[in-house]
């Protein structure tokens, strides 16, 4: 069966709504179970439960699609250059460290990648009371609790000296060998902040800040961000200018500043 992007986006938004019910029930729970994964990052019972709920729904609604999730890995046939023709990529709770400490900056990320390119993205941050979504050719939108949905657009800031930059984790920049470049970028901006996780990228899509860039990422951290940034009029690459969420780093801008930022990080 052939699905339209409108159908896939509607499904992703429904999945996010179900995920929010699970994650908010466990947010700030006194009996939250926290363990450490082999890569030394934390994982909670909420991470696993959210991904399980999404996977179960996807298996019923799109039984022939592949799934890649942070907690339970990949399922489905690989083809072509190693990516399935249709692949859902899930980060059940992006910002687990915030989640387990009671900080509200975290969210569920759901993406649909078609022939290797992210085409549908939903980011839901229930503790912030906001959700963002987009699909290729359909625009980018957000909705806050109790309000109507609205289209979003990146800023028109054209100079780094006037820009707000989020550099996220400075230790990751240092580990990557580009700490000096990150500091230089921050010093070149009007304001620089480490906003962190998915929120900084959504603020770029809304035009509230102008640049979000980061090292030490996985595809499930980025896939859902790409359609939202791009449909809002921005650009998303890695810090070396390569397209897509496959290269371990992220650089999201309003598009106007993109080449300047890449030059600073080179």
Q: Could you characterize the architecture of this molecule?
A:
- This protein is of the alpha+beta class and 266 residues long.
- 34% of the residues lie in helices and 27% in strands.
- It has nine helices and 15 strands.
- A hairpin with a 3-residue loop joins β8 and β9.
- α1 packs antiparallel against α2 and α6 packs parallel to α8.
- The termini are far apart.
- Pfam families: Inositol_P.
- It catalyses: L-histidinol phosphate + H2O = L-histidinol + phosphate.
Task: Give a nutshell description of this structure.
Helices cover 34% and strands 27% of the residues. It contains 9 helices and 15 strands.
Mean pLDDT: 94
Structural class: alpha+beta
Q: In what order do the strands lie side by side in the largest sheet?
A: 4-3-5-6-7-8-9-10
The CATH architecture of the largest domain is 2-Layer Sandwich
H and E order? HEEHEEEHEEEEEEHHEHEHHEEH
Helix content: 25-40%
Q: What is the CATH third-level topology name of the largest domain?
A: Fructose-1,6-Bisphosphatase, Chain A, domain 1
* Assigned CATH superfamily of the largest domain: Fructose-1,6-Bisphosphatase, subunit A, domain 1
Q: What general form does the structure show?
A: globular
Task: State the low-pLDDT regions, or none.
Answer: none
- The overall number of domains is 2
The top level CATH class name of the largest domain: Alpha Beta
N- to C-terminal distance: 45 Å
